[in-house]
Amino acid sequence: MNINAPNFVVVMTDDQGAWATGAATPELRTPTLDALAAGGLVFENFFCASPVCSPARASVLTGRMPSAHGVHDWLRGDNDGIDTTGISYLQGLTTTPEVLAANGYVCAHSGKWHLGDARSAPPGFSHWFSHRDGGGPYYGAPVIDGGTERSEPGYVTDAISDHAVAMVGELATGDRPFYLQVNYTAPHTPWSSENHPADLLDLYRDCEFPSVPREQRHPWFDHVSAEFDRAQVDPRPALRGYCSALSGVDRGVARVLAALEAAGVRDDTYVIFTSDDGFSCGHHGYWGKGNGTWPLNVWDPSIRVPFVVNRPGHVAPGVVRTPISAVSIHPTLVELADAPLPPDPLAAGTSFAPRILGTEDVPAEPVLVFDEYGGTRMIRTATEKYVWRHDGPEELYDLVADPGELVDLSNDPASADRRAALRGQLADWFAAHAVGEYDGGARPVTGLGQRSPVWTDQADADRYVWTAKRRVETE
């Protein structure tokens, strides 16, 4: 064990698009997160591996794409009457906390898990406070505390912060480096006033949110949430709740940073802030993320997320504009910890630790980012994006001339050669980064949820939730 190894605090929000930061949306009240970004390294073009929570989180922890870890959609669980006891969707896969724990780290978790049974700590973790489900009401949330399930009477964002602060106090007194992930359920719905404290809501009482576009409803916008339909008509109540939830995260992060300072370990700790997936609050004419439309989408509001790394005296403030995928978080943290990375032939990411440490120049070769959601797959360069679907339309965008992805060139004869080349690159890459039973490319993933791991004997027609409209024809 390297006694000089750094600590890590990884803060992850739930459904925060890259637009939802103080720099991009000035009316957002997040002074702590704004200061963290101003004093840290901001990655402007950072993309999740899948535009929905559970697959994206599994990819962060394993460095694999969904078609190599088998989590294809958001996971339905106990709040839907599905007993998750003993179910681990990451069974047999190596995760960041497992690697770090094997190399002397103490690993802790406070907040959302949403990758199976949260009643006991998964491999690698020794400190555990978790939301039982993937989300839900902000008051009365079902949580696992000390191995016991109970209802959290207070604001769950504050409870996650409370436990994170307590964990910092305990972990910092030990003689081993620590890894702490603080996974908020915010700013995920619900956004109604009874779900958020009055002092947070009052921050946005008369706000008109002029920085958030009001765009015409996209014909693909098709979400089962009545809250999203109302928001498309009048976005202000929803935006008030969404931004209030983020302000709650901001004050929680302030407390975690203060705890690091009080323990004397702030300069020894990488603080990383990001989100599991993006989110649209009317951008591009829809509300939601990848499953806010049918067919499922991988437009930038759904896949582009904030990513900030801050460590005083070690990470120079600045901005990185090179596109990077969240599948690269796993190898990056392992390298920053100076730990050996176990070989994985299906690893989809590469470490960007040299970019964080300032020892690597801008890559000479074009950087490609890949994304997937069931049978929807994407390849994105700095200048173009191509989307292929197993059962649905293709898309092609010129991101230089059309950064808003408004003009689909997939049927333009002049773009046929470029479309074919990108389609070939996409197919070749997924052939090397997907595997047999985990491959989701031809499975009936609809965005309405996954009920069981792919390695169980449940039929896919029952494993994935579908409706008459959202039905995928499989081979």
TrEMBL record:
UniProt signal peptide: none
Keyword tags: Calcium, Hydrolase, Metal-binding
GO MF annotation list: arylsulfatase activity; metal ion binding
Domain of life: Bacteria
A Pfam cross-reference name: Sulfatase
Domain Sulfatase N-terminal: 6-338
Family designation: Belongs to the sulfatase family.
Protein name per UniProt: Arylsulfatase A-like enzyme
The species this protein was found in: Kribbella amoyensis
